[in-house]
Amino acid sequence: MLRVSTSFYSVISSGEQLILKFGSKFLHFWKLRVDRARSLGTVAPSSRYLARDMVTELKKNHSENGVVVELGPGNGAITRHILSSVQDPESVLPIEISSDSVEKLNRKFPVLNAVHDSAANLEKYITNGQKVQAIISGLPLRVMPRDCVHQIGEAIHNVMGPDSIYVQYTYDLRPKKDAYFKRGNFKKISSRIVWRNLPPARVDVFVAN
Hints:
This protein is α/β, with parallel strands linked by helices. It has helices spanning about 1-35, 50-55, 55-60, 80-85, 100-110, 145-160; strands at about 65-70, 90-95, 115, 130-135, 165-170, 185-195, 200-209. The chain folds into two domains: about 1-35; about 50-209, Vaccinia Virus protein VP39 (Rossmann fold, 3-Layer(aba) Sandwich).
């Protein structure tokens, strides 16, 4: 009887450890949600299906000489897939407004040098004529103040070259004729819905006009 009881409590203990292990990502995410309640704009970390879809165009177009900017990397769910899609991991530039996330990203991915700043200040980190290959954005633009969104849009547009792509996801599944920013600045080249995410998300890919 003692052996059965011991085995039972061992299983319970293992289960608790498993919950703590996989729950830690969500605990960190919910801490960020409290810290950035107005700007996070979602209820769960991005799924691997959404993360894979966000880098589809990057895999097709990546050049080893191009910088890949990630805006709003958060817990790094998409960052991991970006790093696996580029030839030079040091070409990846994450810009994150949460200092807590920046610290965790740099510990999680030592090759990175994540920047603690607003995406609106993107231009000051693209220097010496660097080419921007892609901008991958997880920013919740639909719920952010419009003046802030327009500043970010201008910064994105100003650093993009003729071969650059800008990838953005949103939980608003309704098709939009215009981009997230000023009309005429961007041209949408593809749009698709990722249903295997909570909630489902639409991924839009743009080039600069």
